[in-house]
Amino acid sequence: xxxxxxxxxxxxxxxxxxxxxxxxxxxxxxxxxxxxxxxxxxxxxxxxxxxxxxxxxxxxxxxxxxxxxxxxxxxxxxxxxxxxxxxxxxxxxxxxxxxxxxxxxxxxxxxxxxxxxxxxxxxxxxxxxxxxxxxxxxxxxxxxxxxxxxxxxxxxxxxxxxxxxxxxxxxxxxxxxxxxxxxxxxxxxxxxxxxxxxxxxxxxxxxxxxxxxxxxxxxxxxxxxxxxxxxxxxxxxxxxxxxxxxxxxxxxxxxxxxxxxxxxxxxxxxxxxxxxxxxxxxxxxxxxxxxxxxxxxxxxxxxxxxxxxxxxxxxxxxxxxxxxxxxxxxxxxxxxxx
Amino acid sequence: xxxxxxxxxxxxxxxxxxxxxxxxxxxxxxxxxxxxxxxxxxxxxxxxxxxxxxxxxxxxxxxxxxxxxxxxxxxxxxxxxxxxxxxxxxxxxxxxxxxxxxxxxxxxxxxxxxxxxxxxxxxxxxxxxxxxxxxxxxxxxxxxxxxxxxxxxxxxxxxxxxxxxxxxxxxxxxxxxxxxxxxxxxxxxxxxxxxxxxxxxxxxxxxxxxxxxxxxxxxxxxxxxxxxxxxxxxxxxxxxxxxxxxxxxxxxxxxxxxxxxxxxxxxxxxxxxxxxxxxxxxxxxxxxxxxxxxxxxxxxxxxxxx
Lengths: 338, 306
Known about the structure:
The complex is a heterodimer of chains A (338) and B (306).
Chain A: H1 24-45, H2 50-74, H3 82-98, H4 104-126, H5 131-150, E1 161-162, H6 177-200, H7 202-212, H8 214-219, H9 224-250, E2 252-253, H10 260-273, H11 280-298, H12 303-316, H13 320-326
Helix pairs in contact in A: 1-2, 2-6, 2-9, 2-10, 2-11, 3-4, 3-5, 3-9, 4-9, 6-7, 7-9, 10-11, 10-13
Chain B: H1 2-33, H2 40-58, H3 61-82, H4 92-114, H5 125-128, E1 130-134, E2 137-140, H6 141-163, H7 165-175, H8 177-182, H9 187-213, H10 219-234, H11 239-267, H12 270-295
Antiparallel strand pairs in B: 1-2
Helix pairs in contact in B: 1-6, 1-7, 1-9, 1-10, 1-11, 2-3, 2-4, 2-9, 2-10, 3-9, 6-7, 10-11, 10-12, 11-12
């Protein structure tokens, strides 16, 4: 026995990873991504604006969820303060616009930079802690950002601020709802591809290694803290981008986008769709917003069934929607890329 | 100035005592069951609303509190048996999500039962007045009642944990859960009991504050974050840490809100101090938390085990 045999269940890891995954999940993923693009287009073509706006919201929140998934799903860092990055991104559009700077080439880089900077500072402190401390510290830092923006009377404070014009890209006009949707969709695709690249790069492997066995990674000589902090900053910047989009989408910037319950919702989207799966967060955002829309149409007390659904998911649905699809129901094991 | 300072110091102590009642429940539940309970604030809210109803029914705030306590204990017990018990085996992320769901449910149920409006609880005459505690310093009687009852409860909790059989089991459970159950202790009942105790502490905090602020939907969702800051600063799982941090955070928060603007005005021009003051004072406790953690990631008084 000179060559060590590779166990059968690990064989799939030898193949190069595919963007859309493999097996049953692959068909479904492509189907959903096409549907997410085609359905609102169709609705718009038939003169129904509502579904275009609704899908834009899904896509924007999906970007935020994808960014959270990078550190939560792959890095194992349970950040409970991601709404802060969304809020910072939104204010990076609102505050320059208030002072008369309308260019998107200022807004979007500023949103990403400001969110990345906030991630760098808070991450540097938060990542010194572990487990439940990390959950609560990220939440507390998000509250800090929340109160900071709440106290800025100049920029609306409690009441929020209206955006009179959307960010100006020059060659495209995103105050057109269709253009906005297409831009958001393209940015979502870019973020997913970027996450795919990151996760399967050497950097991503170290990050995932830190999640599954930190002591071993440290013993191998990796500075796990630096890798995690880098991932945290990337995730923050990506979420800031989502925030800039959401600010534009709402034509209104308010601290409401950064309350801690919003962070909880983002986390739920990731878990619902399947943490640590590339398209899971997108699926989670779709199901979350659809459910919210449908339930709130029936009753103003829609939080009641929604909360029950959340508890049900935590107790009984392991691995999220993605896990339900890719699980091999006969043998009970999971197939395809995790 | 010094009169105002003393009064604000007492107000800070009152907030600190309330924070301790909340943080103590969180500490018990986390220290023993390793369970993160975001919905602890909902028990605070439920305590306030039940107390409000009972106060109107019996016509007396004191009876309202006395009768509400066993009911809140029951609610906590049921909560543990129906949902929480099934989550001990999962990770902290699941705890956070599930208890987040419970917050949504609790807020809606309270709104269905009591309506969307806040309820003001009337105080009896002998509690609603003011007393002169020192010459020239007049302080509301009820706030003194909150401070003293909070400190009494803290002392009682210390006695319970240090000198009773139950306290011994709690401490043993915190340091080695498996061993305790192997020694024949009914761990399920112990956990449910501890959870109910935490619920009662949170409920009492809600009952004590609502004559001042009204019982409102979502009243627990803001203060629970502050309570989390308290247990992080104090060191999660440490009762002593929770007490010291609660008093500290309560006083710093209250003093910051009333004096930071004036302190800043000494250093920078008053117009900017006018805007920076409120911003900085609402962020003050988080800044303190960040500093504490940057220096001591485990909090000020981390428990010896774990």
